[in-house]
């Protein structure tokens, strides 16, 4: 069979993301990311710093991306098992922007029907994932939960499926409903941070 080429993010893709905050930046902006601070995100945006598209990709990131078509299929099967039926998943290459707040931008892994899909690979179970039927705001890592809220805001959708592959041993499926109060609070913080980006650029 023909090998499916992985999607490669080119310079233009990264430059489009400079005109707003991506979903993975929501956690740092709210101060709930263990990996990055709001200050780092704001300064990188203000200085228009993007990763070098020609640099060798870290193996973990590449494997996670190469796994996405397989995980989409596994998610579909899990939803059929849970609900009896499900629409076929589809990938998305569009950069979505929240109407009225275009700095809230998101590339998403895909859609199943009207629901957003977010795929995660966690090789060691380090994410401390709680029970699938728990409140997503409590059982998911805060940085992942606000990432999904940001995606729901940017895409104007009401529901997201978060599907997690933990090592080779288990898979978890969370259904994350839209929460307009939390989204409003998130957008307010991001608006203030975007004002800082613009102010630094104008200096």
Attribute tags:
203 residues, two-stranded antiparallel sheet, disordered N terminus, 41% helix, single chain
Description of the structure:
With 203 residues, the protein is an alpha+beta fold. It has 8 helices and 7 strands; from the N terminus they run H-H-H-H-H-E-E-E-E-E-H-H-E-E-H. The chain has helices at residues 11-16, 26-29, 38-46, 59-66, 68-83, 136-139, 142-155, 180-202, and strands at residues 89-90, 96-98, 101-106, 110-112, 115-122, 159-166, 170-177. Strands 1-4-5-6-7 form a 5-stranded mixed beta sheet, sandwiched between helices. A two-stranded antiparallel ribbon has the order 2-3. A hairpin with a 3-residue loop joins strand 6 (159-166) and strand 7 (170-177). The chain is globular and about 55 Å long. It starts with 10 loop residues before the first helix and ends with a helix.
- Helix and strand element order: HHHHHEEEEEHHEEH
Q: How many helical elements?
A: 8
Termini separation: 54 Å
Record field, number of beta strands: 7
Please give the share of residues in helix. 40-55%
Q: Structural class of the secondary elements? A: alpha+beta
What topology emerges from the helices and strands here?
Blueprint: H1 11-16, H2 26-29, H3 38-46, H4 59-66, H5 68-83, E1 89-90, E2 96-98, E3 101-106, E4 110-112, E5 115-122, H6 136-139, H7 142-155, E6 159-166, E7 170-177, H8 180-202
Parallel strand pairs: 5-6
Antiparallel strand pairs: 1-4, 2-3, 4-5, 6-7
Helix pairs in contact: 3-8, 7-8
């Amino acid at each position: 069979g023909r090998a499916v080429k992985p999607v490669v993010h080119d310079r233009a893709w990264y430059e489009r993301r400079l005109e707003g905050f991506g979903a993975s930046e929501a956690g740092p902006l709210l101060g709930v990311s263990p990996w990055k601070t709001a200050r780092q995100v704001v300064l990188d945006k203000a200085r228009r710093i993007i990763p070098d598209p020609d640099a060798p990709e870290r193996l973990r990131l590449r494997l996670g991306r190469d796994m996405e078509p397989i995980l989409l299929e596994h998610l579909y099967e899990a939803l059929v098992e849970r609900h009896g039926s499900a629409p076929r998943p589809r990938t998305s290459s569009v950069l979505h922007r929240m109407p009225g707040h275009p700095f809230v931008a998101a590339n998403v892994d895909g859609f199943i029907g009207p629901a957003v899909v977010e795929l995660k690979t966690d090789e060691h179970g380090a994410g401390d994932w709680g029970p699938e039927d728990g409140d997503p705001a409590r059982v998911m890592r805060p940085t992942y939960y606000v990432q999904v809220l940001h995606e729901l805001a940017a895409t104007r959708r009401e529901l997201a499926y978060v599907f997690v592959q933990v090592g080779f041993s288990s898979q978890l499926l969370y259904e994350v409903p839209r929460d307009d109060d939390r989204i409003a609070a998130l957008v307010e913080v991001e608006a203030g941070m975007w004002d800082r980006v613009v102010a630094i650029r104008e200096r």
